[in-house]
Amino acid sequence: MPPADLTAQARIRDAAIGHFAADGFDKANLRAIAATAEVSAALVLHHFGSKAGLRTACDDFVLGDLMRTAHDETSPEGLQDVIRRYTSNAADYQSHLDYIGRAIKDGSPTARRFVDTIIDESEAIVLAGIADGSMRPSSDPRALAVFIAMSSLAMMTLAPVVARSLGFEMMGPAVLQRMALPSLELYTHGLYTDDTFLVTTQQALAAVHATDPQQDAHREEHVS
C-alpha cells in the first residue's frame, strides 16, 4: 500500500523494518523510526510498548510474509502472483530480505528463529511436493530442506558479494531477476547429464558406513 493508506501502526512497523535492516537492532533509534513513520515516539511506545516489542512485531510480520511467499511459489499460479507482487513492489521485498540478513549477520536472538522456521517450512514444502508428485523423492528430505534454505539464506547474508559477482553495485531487483531462471533450471532439470557423480557418492558413503556403523546410528538418532 502507499504510505498514506497504511495505518500508523503499519507505518511504524515498516519504518522499523527499514531501520533495523540498515542500522541493526542495537543502533536503530526509536525517534528516527518515528520520524520516518511520521508519528511521535510516544505513539511508537503506545502501539508496541518498547523497542523489543516493536522488533517482535517486525519479526512476526517479515517471517509471516516470507512463509506466505514460499508457499505461494509451490504452484504455477502462485509463483506468477509472487513475481507480479515482487516486480510492482520490489523495495518492500528487498527490505524484508535485508531485515532477515541483518538479523543473521548480527547473531541476534531472532536469527535462530528465522533459520529454524525457514528450514522447517522448506521441509514441509518438500514433503508435500513429494507426496503430490510435483517433486522427486529424496534420500533425505530434511537435509535437502537444509540445503534449499541455506541457498536462500546465502542470498541475504552474502548479498554484496552476490551482486558484485554479477556485475551490479548492490543487491536489488536486477540481481534477483537474473538469478531466477538459473535457480529454477537447476531445481527443474538438475545439473549433471548423467548419474556418475551420484553413484560415485553413494558408493563412497556406503563404504564409509560399512567400516563405521556409528555413522548410521548417529544419523538415525539425530533424525528421531
Overall outline: elongated
Strand content: under 5%
Any idea what the radius of gyration is? 21 Å
Q: Helix count?
A: 12
Kindly state the number of beta strands. Answer: 0
Indicate the mean pLDDT.
83
Class derived from helix and strand content: mainly alpha
The helical percent reads over 70%
Give the terminus-to-terminus CA distance: 45 Å
Low-confidence stretches: none
Largest sheet: none
State the order of secondary-structure elements, H for helix, E for strand. HHHHHHHHHHHH
Describe the structure.
- Helix content is 78%, strand content 0%.
- The model has no long low-confidence stretch (mean pLDDT 83).
- The protein has helices at residues 8-23, 30-37, 41-48, 51-72, 76-88, 90-106, 109-132, 141-157, 159-165, 173-189, 196-211, 214-223.
- The protein starts with 7 loop residues before the first helix and ends with a helix.
- The chain is elongated, with a radius of gyration of 21 Å.
- The chain is mainly α.
- It has a domain at 194-224.
- Keywords: DNA-binding.
- This is TetR/AcrR family transcriptional regulator.
- Residues 6-66 form the HTH tetR-type domain.
- It comes from Cryobacterium melibiosiphilum.
In short:
With 224 residues, this protein is an all-alpha fold. The chain contains twelve helices and no strands.
Helices and strands in order:
Layout: H1 8-23, H2 30-37, H3 41-48, H4 51-72, H5 76-88, H6 90-106, H7 109-132, H8 141-157, H9 159-165, H10 173-189, H11 196-211, H12 214-223
Helix pairs in contact: 1-2, 1-4, 1-6, 3-4, 4-7, 5-6, 6-7, 6-8, 7-8
Keywords:
224 residues; mainly alpha; 12 helices; Homeodomain-like_sf
